[in-house]
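fyi for ur records
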Amino acid sequence: WEWRQHLKFASPLKGEAERFLSSWGAGKGGEEFVAMHLRRTDFVTAHKASYADTDAVAEALLRLAQQQGVKHVFVATDSRDSELDTISASLASKGATLHRYKDGHYGMPTLDYSTPIGQAQLALVEQIICASAKAFVGTFHSTFSKEIYLERRSLQGVAFYDNTWAMTTGGKLMPLCQGWHNKEPCEINALD
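which gave:
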């Protein structure tokens, strides 16, 4: 943390994140939203103990959106489109909208993501978006989620503990201080 708090995202990456958020009304001063990093691919088998199925993810996102009083949900993920379509339909049936940072979901990105460097930039833009959410749920054991936690801490100070969780088995949301920092007792109000 000593060095991480001094790292800042490059202006073009922050600009692209803002452009995406503004495309659905969530830019600076716009509508608030909640975000989730949903790691799938190798995590489905490598971290079975903290895996949540599609229905549990949709229910957790809906609970979080309702608890935070928002109608927009952003998901950064390597999941299959079919899983996201199911989550999106579940959220829509309850009045919430799922957003993804992907071609065709809001228009073409201004950055070139066709190269390995571009893929890294895409990931950083997603981290910026997640870090700016009113509340965030990360994937337990994920370094991508950990970087979002650190950026949220940089932006919000220790207040980020109040609105940051890790998802565990069955879609249970664990307050960050229990999962990442292993602090007991946890002074955060759990979401569920």
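Residues 116-131 form the longest helix (16 residues). thats all i got for now
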